[in-house]
């Protein structure tokens, strides 16, 4: 599959509407989990941004950041399943959109020892929110669905960034995309 088809597929999935993000509209628990990250702009932008940010990095960080996000997101869902209260979940998600956008806009290169915990901390909020929408779905299949969708969104962001040439104009475009993501994060925070 070429990059253009992958991007078109991701765009169509992202445009599928917020109704898919909420349980009760379908019976397949894997599908409801898979569709949830595509249904909210906050989740969608944060997950694409992790892929975009990872593409700016070198070496192990390119894989560690998205993988760390997915693992921490599953841990956040686990916290929700255990009944642990996580305060300010929606604010944490909105702040993740802002911070990830700023990291891209500023072309920040945090050391992996700082970037990975930052990404993981925000992923806890996303996972907790995903669990809150579980409805009657089985946790394992629901979590597998949203983990796979998240990894796919990370891959879309990564591939988009790597597809662009290493020119000054492309770098400005990536930074502008980061600024736009950060702007949406600021709006979501009510700033």
Automatic annotation (TrEMBL):
Residues 1-21 form the signal peptide. The keyword Cell membrane does not apply. It comes from the Bacteria. Keywords: Membrane, Signal, Transmembrane, Transmembrane helix. It holds the Pfam family HupE_UreJ. The chain crosses the membrane at residues 37-55, 67-86, 92-125, 137-161. This is HupE/UreJ family protein. It comes from Thauera sinica. The lineage of its organism: Bacteria, Pseudomonadati, Pseudomonadota, Betaproteobacteria, Rhodocyclales.
């Amino acid at each position: 599959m070429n990059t253009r088809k992958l991007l078109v597929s991701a765009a169509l999935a992202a445009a599928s509407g917020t109704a898919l993000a909420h349980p009760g509209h379908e019976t397949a628990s894997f599908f409801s989990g898979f569709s949830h990250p595509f249904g909210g702009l906050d989740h969608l932008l944060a997950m694409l941004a992790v892929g975009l940010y990872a593409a700016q990095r070198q070496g192990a960080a390119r894989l560690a950041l998205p993988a760390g996000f997915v693992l921490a997101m599953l841990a956040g869902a686990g916290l929700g399943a255990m009944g642990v209260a996580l305060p300010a979940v929606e604010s944490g998600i909105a702040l993740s959109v802002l911070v990830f956008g700023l990291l891209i806009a500023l072309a920040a290169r945090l050391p992996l020892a700082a970037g990975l915990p930052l990404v993981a901390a925000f992923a806890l909020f996303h996972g907790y929110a995903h669990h809150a929408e579980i409805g009657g779905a089985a946790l394992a299949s629901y979590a597998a669905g949203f983990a796979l969708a998240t990894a796919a969104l990370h891959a879309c962001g990564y591939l988009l960034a790597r597809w662009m040439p290493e020119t000054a104009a492309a770098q400005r475009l990536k930074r502008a995309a980061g600024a736009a993501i950060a702007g949406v994060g600021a709006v979501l925070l009510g700033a």
